[in-house]
Amino acid sequence: xxxxxxxxxxxxxxxxxxxxxxxxxxxxxxxxxxxxxxxxxxxxxxxxxxxxxxxxxxxxxxxxxxxxxxxxxxxxxxxxxxxxxxxxxxxxxxxxxxxxxxxxxxxxxxxxxxxxxxxxxxxxxxxxxxxxxxxxxxxxxxxxxxxxxxxxxxxxxxxxxxxxxxxxxxxxxxxxxxxxxxxxxxxxxxxxxxxxxxxxxxxxxxxxxxxxxxxxxxxxxxxxxxxxxxxxxxxxxxxxxxxxxxxxxxxxxxxxxxxxxxxxxxxxxxxxxxxxxxxxxxxxxxxxxxxxxxxxxxxxxxxxxxxxxx
Length: 310
Fold this sequence. Notes:
Blueprint: E1 6-15, E2 24-39, E3 45-51, H1 64-76, E4 83-90, H2 99-114, H3 121-136, H4 144-149, E5 152-157, E6 162-166, E7 173-179, H5 185-190, H6 198-217, H7 220-226, H8 233-236, H9 243-252, E8 257-260, E9 267-271, H10 274-290, E10 295-300, E11 308-309
Parallel strand pairs: 3-4
Antiparallel strand pairs: 1-2, 1-11, 2-4, 2-5, 5-6, 7-9, 7-10, 8-9
Helix pairs in contact: 1-2, 1-3, 2-3, 6-7, 9-10
């Protein structure tokens, strides 16, 4: 039996995490999307309202939240059930924080909760990935998986969604810096080379493996040595104002690592010390104020819960 109405929250996420392009991501506290569902008066799913996002389509087949929800409804044989959806975007669009992923997760998770399907979160993950795919054209779960499942996720294989959650050291924090310029994922992907050298592959594979070992052993020195993107960051950094200046400042203050969040322009620093996090935020404010660029910062532990009923 369906509920009278539901409201769910889907958090923002940081994808790639420097060493894991399209295979690593983690959820954060703060920004995200709310999705509400209630009984409707007409056959099928209708998106009746979107707030916080300009120009987003109300057509469920063209909307990430709607598309993900429709796929689950079809699986359940409930596509003709009259329901209404409202999407409240509470995070910036085109920020590199998984805006489309959070919407897709919110849409499918809201349907799941509304109809009390009894499914596990992992059972509905494929529908959330399909929802995000209509936004950027790629089938990848590095934003969707952490937004839905919480924590930091490693994707062994995107096509089969073979996904595993990593251990998070207790002291770990993340600082996200969002300069208010828009970079669309499609555009950011378009500049990437589709080839790399053998030396790059060897070095990046070593960094990824050592980073994972560092996480499980709470070995912050190893994490600091490993959290380096040798492939994607050098290609995308040009799109982000003052990227290298901000990176230098964060590392000077003691960050474990610093890189681009998803497709950018958001950036993230990992720390194991709240004072270091505070200092990085202060440095960011000074650097971008000098260039008259507005920024938004978020300091957060890694969000272990993911999407939830609220």
